[in-house]
Amino acid sequence: MTATLLRTAADLHARARTGRRAVVMTMGALHEGHATLIRTARKIAGPEGEVVVTVFVNPLQFGAGEDLDRYPRTLDADVELAGRFGADAVFAPSVDEVYPGGEPQVRISAGPMGERLEGAARPGHFDGMLTVVAKLLHLTRPDVALYGHKDAQQLALIRRMVRDLNFGVEIVGVPTVREEDGLALSSRNRYLSPAERRTALALSQALFAGRDRHAAQEALRARAREVPATRARAEALSAIGESRAAADAHAVATTAGGPAAVRAAARLVLDEAARLDPPLRLDYLALVDPLDFTEIGDGFTGEAVLAVAARVGATRLIDNIPLTFGPFGDAS
Hints:
Elements: E1 4-6, H1 9-13, E2 21-26, H2 32-45, E3 50-55, H3 75-85, E4 89-91, H4 95-98, H5 118-121, H6 125-140, E5 144-148, H7 152-164, E6 170-174, H8 194-225, H9 231-239, H10 243-253, H11 258-273, E7 280-288, E8 302-312, E9 315-325
Parallel strand pairs: 1-4, 2-3, 2-5, 3-4, 5-6
Antiparallel strand pairs: 7-8, 8-9
């Protein structure tokens, strides 16, 4: 299908609406990650609904020395791709359309959660992000808006804003899309040289190492719970050649695990990448509660996010994966 390019909110509002409007907000340079968002939006909107993709490079989100001028702008290709992925319209407003009269004097504050991790690395970033998201929600008037899990802190803050400020819109998170080698899809990946890309793979590899360490620990804990530590049971296991498995299970079950082990496994990969050429320069590795993005402790139960940010050459990349800690540290 062909997407209609719209430049003003008035043009967008003039479109007839017969079903749900689903909005996917982007800064352009569309890739397969955006395609997944748009396809999901198409399913949610249904044949009678409408999918609108916004393309706007928001100057408020870029701090001093960041890549506002470098950020790729490929509007003609974005319109073509958005239509191919299932969008009905692309709303690509000018800066004057979004911020008439210049930068807004009144902005949305991200609060304490917006000062952690990405907010600490990029002061003011989340205030600018929430301000433009709020404006685009008002300008596009959607029933549902979709955002990727890759920007986990951004998604959490948008959900909090919508809840705290009573926006009448449903927020849907869509899982991260990865390339075959595991690197999370990002418009910034195009900045990486072949050597830098090889180093950048350490981000996803570190996350997977933390996830796998957690899963292995919990599998052995489960095994240990099935093997009571009694002499009679040990003798019976030995008779069938399982004494080593039982011993290993009990040994691992009683060693340090949980969040500390997850962090250690991920950091080992990142430390090795710091010695590569070119090296990976770590900004942060964090295992946090997605409700407020504070670090979780060893007794934590529930959903968590293992997040990492680092620079390779001149390019800054982020990635994350979800983990679940249950009463026995059950992994998902």
